[in-house]
Amino acid sequence: MASIKLHEIAHCYNAGKGAGVDYALKPLNQSWENGGAYALLGPSGCGKTTLLNIISGLLRPSEGRVLFDEKDITDLTTEQRNIAQVFQFPVVYDTLSVAKNLAFPLQNRGLANDVIERRVAEVLQMLGMQAKANLKARGLNADDKQKISLGRGLVRTDVEAILFDEPLTVIDPHLKWQLRTELKKIHQQFQHTMIYVTHDQTEALTFADKVIVMYEGAIVQIGTPEELFEQPKHTFVGKFIGSPGMNVLPCELRGSDIVVNGNKVALGRPVSVSREDSKGLELGIRPEYVKLSADCGIPVDITGVEDVGKRIVVRSKFHNSDVNIILREGEGIPGNPGLIFEPSKINLYQNSYLVGTV
Ligand code: ATP
Q: Does residue 25's CB lie within 6 angstroms of at least one atom of ligand 1?
């Protein structure tokens, strides 16, 4: 396993075609620790696959260098980089049995038959596919085929990193949960460097120790699931993570107070943004930290109530902003409701980026 460093990496698919620089991946520096479990999370088109393919060697970056354990491998092929990659759709040999599909990457490395047999048996067990070991892949369903693909990615123990590109997209939701848990266990047991691309926050947050959130070709935050939840560094992260995401309301600074459309909001700590420089200010507060109170707080109109499994989400409107509230157990909607924000959970943003409070 290796640590991975991306030095001044950027990618432009139309480089050299005279259309100006249109980065699919904007210039970035990023290090991945040896043995870490990372998720690359972001909406479609934000550059996740581009970044993953630059690491695996399927794509040569238009700028910058890729280093494994400080060694520059930018010019090496995928095979020379010694990487395993699992794609969104199954990559299997239809005419081979499940066991032979799994054995293939090991036979390619010239491993002894008994070592191969042992390792294939371990992976079959991991995937719960022992009973299907001798069946031809051709006759299996999409779930099983994708499990074989996962197995082929996991079967070698000598790879520098294992990269997953939305590997559970075609998998049945129940099985998805099982496989995700299994992958997490495999990581804990073998400590491979793993990078997992997904646009599904649940997948990212359950799999990874560190989640890298991407937006419009850039990394906007790297953090633990808790950091992304409590202190999103960009309003996009706040809105993208959580269900529903963070409420974002335009606000202004009056003296040392935060004012939301004429309503003073207690922050409980001084703001470090200067008043002269307070344009584009927004307040971010998660629905979990908003309370509804009778006859006080910021007056709102309740527009809906949704029972979403274990929680009740109240939808409300305040001027032009939608504000979601998650009711705590035993709480109801009072008459003449007003919003109360938990002061310590308020984040301030300027031009979409988190700004300081002191
Ligand atoms: P998805 O989740 O849909 O796979 P992604 O986050 O992985 O999206 P990328 O596939 O890396 O995003 O794409 C980033 C940007 O680069 C997008 O605007 C996409 O249209 C563009 N792009 C990707 N591949 C190519 C290509 N081969 N040629 C030109 N543009 C491309």
A: no
